[in-house]
Every structure is written in C-alpha cells, then in structure tokens.
Predict the 3D structure of the following.
Amino acid sequence: MSGTKTNFPTDPWIPSIPSFSLRDYILPPSRVSDWINQDTRSWDVEAIRGVLDESTTEAIMQIPVGPAEAHDGWVWKHNKNGNYSTKSAYHAFRERRDHPVADSEIFY
C-alpha cells in the first residue's frame, strides 16, 4: 500500500477491523500516505498514536507499507477476479438485503 489514493478517515482500508471507519475521530482530511514516514517507508507510529486508540493503531501497524511507487487499489470481494460487475453487485446487494452487513464488508 502506498496510500496516495486512500482517504485515511473515511475509506475502509483496515481489513482487520469490521465496519471500519475513522469518522468518529476528529481528523483532518488526509491520505493514508500522509501517515507514512516517506524516508523509512514505515508507519508514523507517534502521529498515529497521537490521534487513534491503541487497538486501531495496532491494526494499522499490521498492514505492510509498500513501495512509494505502488498503486492503491480496491478489490470487489463478491467476484472471484476482484473486479466489479453489475451481475456481482446485483447478487451482493440481494444478499445484503436478506442479511444486512456493514458497508466495509462489501469492499476490502
């Protein structure tokens, strides 16, 4: 993950936290890459600990930081190839209607 296209407080980018959202925190608009030390290509632990609780911080620390030139991407988990299609969305939302889930469980 480079984090350049992922919104830190609103995108569901922490896979180990169900129904992930940092909307409850008062955070400035930022990208995930803003929370990565660009010199060491590691998480800026002090900055993250300064605004988030310990369990969320630990979940973030478990996510590997990729090279700066890596591209962020989203995977549609309701299709084996990870790509969104109208057919897979139809089936996912029918399933969701019958068994409600959090929005963060649609994408990862």
